[in-house]
Design a protein that fits this description.
about 210 residues, mainly alpha, about 70% helix
Length: about 210
């Protein structure tokens, strides 16, 4: 009788241990999924702002067309880079984003020499929207990196690393951009010479940026 009782207790104990292990596995799996989804959602927010920023660029170019002419090759490069951020991996999009920022800075100058452009409501609205978008990108970039840090810590540390290996969870990449690319695009046109007195407008030669050193 005692043996049967002990056997029964042992059986229930074994079942309880199995249940606890299964619950722990489920918890770890769901925890990893939840943290990975937070990273994906944060990246989606960055993606939205990147697309919004580049949707504004054609309107900006149209607005300033009457005030300056651009090198055709530079404009083609900007168009190509704009297309690059619509497809590809997050890192590919970030690379295109950095290159586009540099390309834009190579054709932007100060607006002081063009009072009519400065006074344009459309120009001012585009300038404000670009600055607002840059602020949002900076904000969501911080959130994204925070979520990546939390997720990567779970993937790398015990016991999360064990379950990450079993279920195929891998570390995610940081949103790391060169210092120059993190600066807002300058919507300026003052370095362009104004020959309005002679009825002519000089074309602006784009000066390539120096390598950031990365």
């Amino acid at each position: 009788m005692i043996e049967l009782l002990l056997l029964g207790l042992f059986g229930w104990s074994a079942i309880a241990v199995v249940v606890i292990i299964l619950l722990f596995v489920i918890f770890m799996f769901n925890n990893l999924v939840s943290k990975r989804n937070r990273v994906k959602n944060a990246w989606a927010q960055i993606d939205v702002q990147l697309k919004r920023r580049y949707d504004l660029i054609p309107n900006l170019i149209e607005t300033v067309k009457g005030y300056a002419r651009y090198e055709k090759s530079v404009m083609l490069n900007v168009t190509k880079l704009r297309s690059s951020i619509m497809t590809g991996s997050p890192q590919a999009k970030l690379k295109a984003n950095d290159q586009l920022s540099n390309a834009l800075k190579s054709i932007f100058a100060v607006a002081e020499n063009y009072p009519d452009l400065k006074a344009s409501a459309n120009f001012k609205d585009l300038q404000d929207q670009l600055e607002e978008t840059e602020d949002k990108i900076a904000f969501v970039r911080t959130s994204y990196n925070d979520y990546v840090l939390d997720y990567n810590n779970t993937v790398q540390t015990f016991p999360g690393n064990v379950f990450a290996g079993i279920f195929g969870f891998k570390q995610d990449d940081w949103f790391e951009a060169p210092a120059a690319a993190q600066e807002p695009v300058k919507v300026d046109f003052g370095d362009l010479s104004d020959d309005s007195s002679s009825g002519k407008q000089n074309s602006t030669q784009a000066k390539p940026n120096k390598p950031s050193g990365k």
